[in-house]
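FAQ

Q: What does a record look like?
A: Structure on top, sequence underneath. For example:
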């Protein structure tokens, strides 16, 4: 079950492996939390998901409570009709929580991909979602050994927790194209050897006027040192308009604004960047594997391996410009070597699903 662009990145390589298997009939269900083309249809196409494959479940409600309730009700109705043997959810978005709750209320086995990540910050909606989904999941697939140990410390059985690697990296390694990234740079009018790629969408950075103003000031200071490309997430664009900051952003010299980029364009552009700035969890991972210096504008991260083994640093908006200037004096980062982030995670998950499903051959 998927609901957002990051979910698509995680589901696509696993779906491909499962579609080729002779022991299961996978069905990709898209509970439509993201509907913008660059956040949904285009990444599906970039990652080889057939346009007619996902079962699309539409949502209409606005407001957090109403929308979450609609997600649960809509997905519960689908499960009641189809009665799958197992539901697989990805990551930590609201649709992940809704689908997990719906599955367990109907007594359907639940597997959580990207389980065990913890920031320790329960003000983050994603942290609450992770904790609740992991609490009810039957099988946990982790991206790192640290996440596996976290789940064991929380009382989960060793047999139910599996360190398999990172599906995001499967998608990354199968899609990134530096030459294509150079073409995207040409289209945007930036030097393919010297630019910063930035993204911001977390509530802590864009949902209040003060926080968003801090981001705008930071971008103005960063642009004095290096040109910046800023794809605008729909949430960020709405906040800029709501607080009257869009015009201020438009007048920052050296800042190139664009709508959300399709996945292949974005990831290939990231591979060319001299440095990246973000509040995205996935981008921290991608920068580490690509060997791109990353400044994460957050107080914490649920992906500490990107700090210890990768090229990521946590920064505040006020400190970021000075740290970026320091990074520009350094050589480019080297690609990180993080265990099992090797592009083969989908195969490991599929084999574990096969051996734990009780089916060894033939379609059920």
């Amino acid at each position: 079950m998927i609901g957002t662009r990051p979910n698509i990145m995680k589901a696509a390589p696993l779906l491909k492996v499962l579609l080729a298997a002779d022991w299961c009939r996978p069905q990709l269900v898209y509970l439509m939390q993201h509907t913008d083309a660059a956040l949904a249809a285009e990444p599906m196409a970039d990652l080889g998901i057939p346009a007619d494959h996902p079962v699309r479940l539409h949502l209409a409600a606005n407001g957090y409570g109403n929308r979450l309730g609609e997600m649960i009700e809509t997905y519960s109705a689908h499960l009641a009709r189809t009665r799958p043997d197992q539901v697989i959810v990805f990551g930590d978005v609201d649709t992940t929580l809704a689908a997990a709750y719906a599955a367990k209320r109907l007594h359907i086995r639940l597997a959580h991909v990207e389980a065990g990540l913890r920031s320790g910050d329960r003000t983050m909606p994603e942290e609450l979602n992770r904790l609740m989904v992991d609490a009810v999941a039957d099988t946990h697939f982790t991206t790192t050994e640290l996440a596996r140990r976290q789940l064991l410390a929380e009382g989960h059985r060793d047999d139910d927790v599996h360190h398999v690697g990172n599906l995001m990296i499967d998608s990354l390694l199968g899609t990134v194209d530096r030459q294509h990234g150079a073409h995207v740079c040409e289209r945007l009018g930036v030097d393919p050897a010297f630019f910063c790629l930035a993204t911001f969408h977390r509530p802590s950075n864009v949902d209040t006027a003060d926080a968003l103003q801090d981001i705008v000031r930071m971008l103005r200071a960063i642009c004095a040192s290096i040109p910046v490309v800023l794809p605008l997430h729909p949430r960020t664009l709405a906040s800029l308009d709501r607080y009257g900051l869009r015009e201020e952003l438009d007048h920052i010299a050296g800042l190139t604004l664009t709508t959300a980029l399709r996945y292949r364009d974005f990831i290939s552009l990231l591979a060319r960047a001299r440095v990246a700035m973000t509040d995205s969890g996935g981008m921290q991972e991608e920068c580490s594997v690509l060997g791109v210096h990353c400044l994460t504008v957050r107080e914490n991260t649920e992906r500490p391996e990107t700090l210890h083994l990768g090229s990521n640093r946590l920064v505040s908006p006020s400190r970021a410009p000075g740290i970026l200037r320091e990074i520009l004096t350094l050589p480019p980062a080297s690609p990180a070597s993080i265990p099992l982030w090797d592009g083969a995670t989908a195969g490991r998950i599929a084999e574990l699903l096969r051996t734990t499903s009780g089916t060894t051959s033939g379609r059920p």
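Q: Is there anything notable about this one?
A: The mean pLDDT is 94.
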